[in-house]
Specification:
Elements: H1 2-30, H2 32-62, E1 65-70, H3 76-81, E2 87-92, H4 97-102, E3 107-111, H5 115-120, E4 127-131, H6 138-163, H7 168-171, H8 184-191, H9 195-220, H10 223-228, H11 234-263, H12 280-307, H13 311-335, H14 349-360, H15 366-391, H16 395-398
Parallel strand pairs: 1-2, 1-3
Antiparallel strand pairs: 3-4
Helix pairs in contact: 1-11, 2-9, 2-11, 8-14, 9-11, 9-12, 9-13, 9-14, 11-12, 11-15, 12-13, 12-14, 12-15
Length: 400
């Protein structure tokens, strides 16, 4: 009988909580402004990534180095050999290098007047390469032309040595060959490094409007006082609000993942040397990993909004809060800090590492994922308890 009496209040609490959950979810999902914000940002950054990668490939394929050659009659064959894919050569009789660079030319290559004679006499005639280093394309064009000139110079040296019966190996004791050992997943990590941070940012942006409205907004509309007068534990009120806010944040993150995966076949990953390694189990794992983080983001936003002085103050504080994690994660990526496995227990940092691994198809430790998710849920429980104590304070309703 005693066990039955203990279970009866619990069932009663859950039954009383269901209408509260229904109220919070209806208010959250009826807010068109919050839904538009969640959906818009969730679809915006995958579309921007796809468009940006396509633009990069198109720009790279259309990059042409335009070179003006002055005095080409001194070495007409050499000028012709410099012509090739991605390099346009214009032979000019005269011209000022500064004026030519100010036009559409990236480089100006000038032959000395006695180039042909000195070349025949083996006296190393000079070549003058004019470049405007303040131009954004100057460095690329200069490297491209210098590589062609170095190849042409090596060919001439080889021919001269062969004409005199000297083997090329005498002057070249070794031959350097560069071999790229990077894997497609490693190259993909460079391009997709920003995706985990943007997915986490989506959680903050998608739940921002709802978290402010359900806390500071209800307090200003005086509906919070009516809610607190109901025979409900404070932790149930915070939990119901957290679940409603987290549902929008998680929806935004799931939509962003779906849009990103759907746009990957359109993105020119092959041209960038990247192999698509995202699998269906990986996509499902990403969605499940973000659920505890969505709960944490929601409850922290609610707590911060309850501490604010007004609705506008809550919006300002949460806007700053949503930028701080992105700055932290980007700083870690840019610094390329090598973190120990135990760092995966920390929210945000662990989620960034797991999402990055799942995106590029690398192995992710399941025990660390479960342990990190458990730590996140423990922090959520502590935040709910903190929010419950905050609701019991009389100063809460007088704020603002």
């Amino acid at each position: 009988m005693s066990a039955q009496r203990k279970s009866t209040p619990r069932i009663g609490l859950l039954q009383r909580m269901l209408p509260l959950l229904r109220k919070e979810f209806l208010e959250a999902w009826r807010d068109r402004r919050a839904l538009v914000m969640a959906v818009s940002f969730a679809l915006m950054f995958p579309a921007m990534m796809a468009g940006g990668s396509m633009f990069m490939i198109k720009k790279k394929s259309e990059e042409v180095t335009r070179v003006a050659i002055l005095g080409s009659e001194q070495a007409p064959l050499m000028a012709e050999r410099l012509r090739g894919p991605g390099v346009e050569i214009d032979r000019l009789d005269s011209g000022d290098p500064r004026e030519l660079l100010a036009q559409d030319y990236h480089l100006v290559l000038a032959f000395a007047d006695d180039f042909a004679q000195r070349y025949r006499d083996f006296r190393a005639p000079p070549l003058y390469l004019y470049v405007d280093t303040s131009s954004t394309d100057a460095g690329r064009a200069q490297r491209q032309l210098q590589e062609r000139l170095a190849g042409l110079q090596q060919m001439v040296v080889t021919q001269r040595l062969a004409a005199r019966g000297v083997a090329q190996q005498v002057l070249a004791p070794w031959k350097l060959e560069t071999r790229d050992v990077s894997t497609p997943s490693a190259r993909g990590a460079l391009l997709l490094a920003m995706v985990p941070g943007l997915l986490i940012l989506t959680l903050f942006v998608a739940s921002l409007a709802t978290s402010v409205d359900t806390s500071a907004g209800e307090r200003e509309r005086l509906s919070m006082e009516t809610l607190l007068l109901q025979p409900l534990p404070a932790w149930q009120i915070i939990t119901a609000k957290m679940l409603a806010v987290a549902s929008l944040g998680w929806l935004g993150a799931l939509m962003a993942i779906a849009a990103l995966v759907a746009l990957m076949p359109v993105m020119p990953l092959a041209e960038l040397g990247i192999q698509q390694a995202t699998t269906v189990p990986g996509v499902i794992s990403m969605g499940l990993l973000l659920l505890p983080l969505a709960l944490l983001v929601a409850v922290l936003q609610i707590l911060l909004a309850l501490r604010s002085q007004s609705f506008k103050d809550a919006q300002t504080q949460l806007s700053i809060l949503q930028i701080a994690p992105l700055v932290l994660l980007m700083g870690l990526d840019m610094a390329q800090v090598s973190l120990a496995d135990s760092w995966q227990l920390l929210p945000l940092i662990g989620h960034q590492q797991w999402l990055k691994g799942l995106l590029v198809g690398e192995a992710v430790s399941l025990p660390w994922m479960l342990a990190g998710s458990a730590v996140t849920l423990m922090i959520v429980a502590a935040a709910v308890a903190t929010g419950a104590r905050a609701l019991r304070r009389e100063s809460l309703l007088s704020a603002g």
